[in-house]
Design the sequence.
C-alpha cells in the first residue's frame, strides 16, 4: 500500500486488547484508523501468551482434576491419563481461532493494518519497519505497545529451564517439579495449573502474602487452600541466587528467620511482574513525559505531547486486559469529541483464575480505612451455599466492605467457585451505590453460587445471614 498520500485520523501502535479494541471503536465512531503490529498475528500478550492460553490450560486442569475425583460423583474411570501434547494442541487451537477473529474484525471495520515495528519520528508520523520501511501519517496516535515479563536482576531465561510466561506455555511435558518466583496473579495461576497436572510446585513471594493487591483475608485464604493442595508456599522470602546445573534450576531462597533454603526444581518460572514496552518508540524525541518507565497521561489518556495518547500496560494504571480495552475506547471517544466518561479506577475488577478463583472490585478493608472511612464488613462461606456443595467446590467465602452509617457497599471480595463470573454484577452494585439492604432484598435464584453475596448482605444489613 502506498501510504504517502493517505492521512489517517488515528494510528494505533499495538494490537493487544487495548490497541485492537481502540481501533474498532475509532472506526465505529467514523474515524479513519490504521493499526501497526510488530508481531505476525494480532492480539498481543493477552491472546498469545497471557489471558487466553493460560485459561485454556486452566480449563484442562480443572477437567483433569474432576476426572480424578470421578468416584465422588459416581463416575468410575479405569484409566485416567494426561496427554500433555493434546492439552497444548487444544490451547494452540483456541489461540489461533481467536487471533483469526481479531483479524476478521480488523477487515470488517475497514481498519488498515501494517506489520512491523512502529516508531514515532514526528508528532504526526509513525515509521513502520517491516518487510519494507513505510511511513504512516495520522492526526492522532495511540500508543498501546503493552508490557513484557520482568526478569529477576541478574537472571536470564534460557528458554528451557528458567522461563517466563511465554516459554512455559511452550513446554512439551509436565515438569516433575516447578519453582515459581512471584506470588501475584501470574504465579498463583500457573501454580494452580501445574499442581493439578501433577507437578510438585513451590511458590516464593517476597512480600508478606500471596496476591498482595487483594484484601488481606483473601490472601490468607488462598495461601491456606494452596498449602492444603500440597503447594509449598514461602512468603517474606527472597530469591538470593539461581543457577542451572545438570538441567535443573538450583535456587537459594532466604526466609525471615535468616535461614537460606536450597530449592532444586526441573523448571523455574519467573513471575515477578511486568514492565512497559516503551523502548525505541521515539517518545523521548517528542518529549513525552514518563515516570518509572510508564507514560504519563491525563484522564482522557492524553500524553504531554499534543495528539498522542497512551493506553494499557504502558501507562501507570492496573495492568489488566479489560482495563486496556476501556482506556482504548475512552481515548477514541476523546479523539472523536464524543464526550467520554472518565474511568473510575476504584471500580476495575480484578480476577485470578486459580483454584478456587479469586475476584474483587472496589475498596479493600485496609484501603477504606486508610481513606478515613468508618468500615463495616461481613463474610459468608461458600461451604453454606448449596450450589457450591453440589459442585464439590465449597472452599472460600464472600466478603463485603461497606461504610458504617448506611452500609453502602464499597468493596466486594470473593474467593470460591466461578467467582470471576460474579464480579461484574458486584461492580454494578457499587457503581449504583447499592447498600447492604439493597443487596439483601434483591432476590437471587436458588441454587446458585451468587446466593453467597445475598447471604453476606443479610449479615451486613441485619446482623445475621440465613443459612449459617
Sequence:
Amino acid at each position: 500500500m502506498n501510504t504517502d498520500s493517505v492521512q489517517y485520523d488515528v494510528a494505533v501502535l499495538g494490537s493487544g486488547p487495548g490497541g485492537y479494541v481502540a481501533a474498532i471503536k475509532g472506526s465505529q465512531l467514523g474515524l479513519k484508523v490504521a493499526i501497526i503490529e510488530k508481531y505476525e498475528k494480532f492480539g498481543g500478550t493477552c491472546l498469545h501468551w497471557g489471558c487466553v492460553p493460560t485459561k485454556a490450560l486452566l480449563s484442562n486442569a480443572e477437567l483433569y482434576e474432576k476426572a480424578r475425583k470421578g468416584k465422588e460423583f459416581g463416575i468410575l474411570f479405569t484409566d485416567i491419563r494426561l496427554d500433555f501434547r493434546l492439552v497444548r494442541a487444544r490451547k494452540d487451537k483456541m489461540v489461533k481461532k481467536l487471533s483469526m477473529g481479531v483479524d476478521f474484525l480488523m477487515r470488517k471495520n475497514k481498519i488498515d493494518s501494517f506489520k512491523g515495528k512502529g516508531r514515532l519520528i514526528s508528532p504526526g508520523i509513525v515509521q513502520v519497519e517491516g518487510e519494507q520501511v513505510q511511513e504512516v501519517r495520522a492526526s492522532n496516535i495511540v500508543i498501546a505497545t503493552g508490557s513484557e515479563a520482568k526478569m529477576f536482576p541478574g537472571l536470564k531465561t534460557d528458554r528451557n529451564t528458567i522461563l517466563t510466561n511465554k516459554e512455559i506455555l511452550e513446554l512439551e511435558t509436565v515438569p516433575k517439579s516447578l519453582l515459581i518466583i512471584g506470588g501475584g496473579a501470574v504465579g498463583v495461576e500457573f501454580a494452580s495449573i501445574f499442581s493439578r497436572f501433577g507437578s510438585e510446585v513451590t511458590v516464593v513471594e517476597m512480600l508478606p502474602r500471596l496476591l498482595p493487591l487483594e484484601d488481606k483475608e483473601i490472601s490468607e485464604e488462598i495461601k491456606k487452600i494452596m498449602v492444603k493442595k500440597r503447594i509449598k508456599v514461602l512468603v517474606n522470602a527472597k530469591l538470593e541466587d539461581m543457577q542451572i546445573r545438570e538441567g535443573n534450576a538450583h535456587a537459594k531462597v532466604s526466609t525471615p528467620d535468616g535461614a537460606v533454603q536450597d530449592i532444586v526444581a526441573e523448571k523455574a518460572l519467573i513471575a515477578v511482574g511486568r514492565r512497559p514496552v516503551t523502548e525505541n518508540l521515539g517518545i523521548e524525541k517528542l518529549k513525552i513525559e514518563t515516570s518509572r518507565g510508564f507514560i504519563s497521561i491525563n484522564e482522557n489518556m492524553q500524553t504531554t505531547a499534543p495528539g498522542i495518547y497512551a493506553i494499557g500496560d504502558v501507562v501507570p494504571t492496573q495492568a489488566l486486559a479489560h482495563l486496556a480495552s476501556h482506556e482504548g475506547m475512552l481515548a477514541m471517544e476523546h479523539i472523536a469529541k464524543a464526550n467520554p466518561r472518565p474511568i473510575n479506577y476504584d471500580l476495575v475488577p480484578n480476577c485470578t483464575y486459580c483454584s478456587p478463583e479469586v475476584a474483587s472490585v472496589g475498596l479493600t478493608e485496609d484501603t477504606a480505612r486508610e481513606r478515613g472511612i468508618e468500615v463495616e464488613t461481613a463474610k459468608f462461606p461458600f461451604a453454606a451455599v448449596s450450589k457450591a456443595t453440589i459442585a464439590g467446590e465449597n472452599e472460600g467465602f464472600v466478603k463485603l466492605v461497606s461504610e458504617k452509617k448506611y452500609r453502602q457497599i464499597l468493596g466486594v471480595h470473593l474467593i470460591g467457585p466461578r467467582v470471576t463470573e460474579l464480579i461484574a454484577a458486584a461492580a454494578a452494585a457499587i457503581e449504583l451505590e447499592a447498600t447492604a439492604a439493597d443487596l439483601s432484598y434483591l432476590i437471587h435464584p436458588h441454587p446458585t453460587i451468587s446466593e453467597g453475596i445475598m447471604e453476606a448482605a443479610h449479615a451486613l444489613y441485619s446482623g445475621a445471614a440465613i443459612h449459617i
Summary: Residues 178 and 201 are 5 Å apart (CA to CA). The first strand starts at residue 7 and ends at 13. The chain has a mean pLDDT of 96. DSSP finds twelve helices and 24 strands in the chain.
